[in-house]
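Standup notes, structure subgroup. Blocker cleared on the adenosine-5'-diphosphate input:
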Amino acid sequence: MNVQSRLLLTWTAVATVLLAPSLFALNRVVKLRDIAYELGIRHRSAYVALGGMQTELARMERFQVNYVAFGSPVAAAEVRASLAGARDRLDQLASAGHAGLAANAEVYLDSIEDATSRLDSLIAAGMNEDATALLGGVRPLYTRASNAIDELAEELTTSTELEVDAAREMSDTVTRTLVGALVAALLLALAIAYRSTSALTSPLRRVAREMAKVAGGEFTPPDTLPYARADEIGALARSFRTMTLKLSEVDRLKAEFVSVASHELKSPLNVISGYAELLQRGTYGPVSEKQQSVLSTISAQAHALARRVSQLLDISRIEAGGLSVSRAPIQLHEFVDDVDRAYQAIAEQRGISFIVEVDPLLPSTFDGDADRLRQEVLGNLLSNAFKFTESGGAIRLAASRSAGNQLELAVSDTGPGISPDEMSRIFDKYYQVGRQARNAGAGLGLAIAREVVLAHGGTITAESRKAGGSTFRVRLPLADSLAPAENARVS
Ligand code: ADP
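Run returned:
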């Protein structure tokens, strides 16, 4: 299934889960509306029926009195019509759902109808006085019927209130159920959305992690990516693998080329340096002052070029994973003295004060590759420090013991410092801050220094102060058993 279909399916599932309680709510609301509607209709219609009955009874009583007094057949017909009207109202009451109430009222109507028939017979027989006497007995019936209808109205109000209460309870239950169902649906929808999105994002995150490794120069395609997936993520992973393999091939070819080219350059450079030196010494005849100066420039440039070539060789070895360090016990004093001697002359020439300090608590020896630490680590750090420090400035090399039983070699200068943005990149291969003339390197010095330090199991960090000046700290693990140095020295 491709990503689009998967997303579509997820959102359909989420919508369905959320739709279910909504439909349930809709159904309940419709039901409640029906109940309210029915209550309204039945209530109103029952009240109308009871009111109508009261009217018909009053009318009937009035015409009955009239009929008994004057014997008018119109009044008799009106009595019958009111009786029929009252019975219609009874039917209306029954069909409004109040059959019980209608049956109660019917008892009174029956007795009134019965009395009416008897009155009719008495008047038809001319027995008006008997009829008047009977009417006197019938009239309380009307009062009782009217009272009974009032009671019925009250009963009706009570039963309606009960139904309204039941409806309210139903609405409360619906609200509670609905809130519960909505919360459950929401949780379910979130779970579905989470599962489905993580099925997409977790392989993407893995691809992104591996891409970051490639961006950092690691060109090995990982086995754990979802190459077998049939969707776009699988396609991305496969393209990424192909790209990584191609990059790794290009990288291998580049390292091979750099290695071969550097080897090829080294021998002619040595020959140039050698002959320049022989010429300077006068082996091939006398040399004028001007020629001496030209020869020393040739010699210096050949040395600079040889250093660059050896850096390229180092980096190609590092890239091929072949940087080796041969550890042996190093005499700390001798080591520091060598470095001091090598740079004191340049410091004097440049008018820079070069201070070397050794902590008395340090052991007299430590394990490491003396050549690499001297040339590729301290050599690079110090030549950078000299490159960036103006005449009148100071450079300090301090050897001390740092936390975790480590030898710390700190090189600080009073140069311009390094901006925080650049700080994270200065140890990258071929990276240089700006392109100033004095940055005449290849951006490899710090990268090589870092690799050598890492190969010793140590760390290298850089700090820079706002006011200017940088400090590079190299920390190398020390063996516990080594004895402290006999004396400290500062020069
Ligand atoms: P390069 O061999 O070209 O000097 P590096 O790897 O030694 O390159 O240094 C990388 C960058 O870090 C350089 O471009 C340089 O500008 C900066 N840098 C290194 N050391 C210092 C320092 N002590 N003060 C200021 N900038 C420095």
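Discussed briefly. The pocket of adenosine-5'-diphosphate is lined by residues 380, 384-385, 388, 413, 415, 418, 426, 431-433, 439, 441-447, 470 (CB under 6 Å).
Next: hand off to the docking folks.
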